[in-house]
């Protein structure tokens, strides 16, 4: 007897007393999950997001709409970036500062060409405070998934408080599951069997998150 047979046998025994006309699974299971843990003000939620982002080794910055272009220019200059990839729907006023050579998100760009780009700037779909996670859904201000996976430096702008939620269930309520979703918790990293951390394996080595107030 195989392991598969053993498992299926246990399932059959567990369901032996369930009538054929029992309520369907989708209806029978109550899904009144807790959507957040505790009550927080908007400010406390944003502070928790910043704390958890930093805990994942993302670099967190705070600014407002008026100072955002200057901050983006300084972050790129501080990185020594000579080129920056820009999604087609990134707000034009974000790019008002002195930026390096801009590279448009073009479907014809090869992985080798993307690898030569120093940085990428995107928006996001939503940011989750409890997990320190940024979610991208390939919206106009985010571009295709690969542009945030190949360049070594990713600057992600989060509009505060409109794009910040407390929990994963709240985030799921805002997202379209049919879209290509990328969930980012800090810069790309992995560890080998000796627990030696290596960054930049499956995506950007450096993630900078800019929390910009919408007021």
From TrEMBL:
Domain of life: Bacteria
Domain LUD: start-end pairs: 93-211
Pfam families assigned to the protein according to its UniProt record, in alphabetical order: LUD_dom
InterPro entries xrefs: FTHF_cligase-like_sf (IPR024185), LUD_dom (IPR003741), NagB/RpiA_transferase-like (IPR037171)
Gene3D superfamilies, alphabetized: NagB/RpiA/CoA transferase-like
Protein name as catalogued: LUD domain-containing protein
Organism from which the protein derives: Streptomyces sulfonofaciens
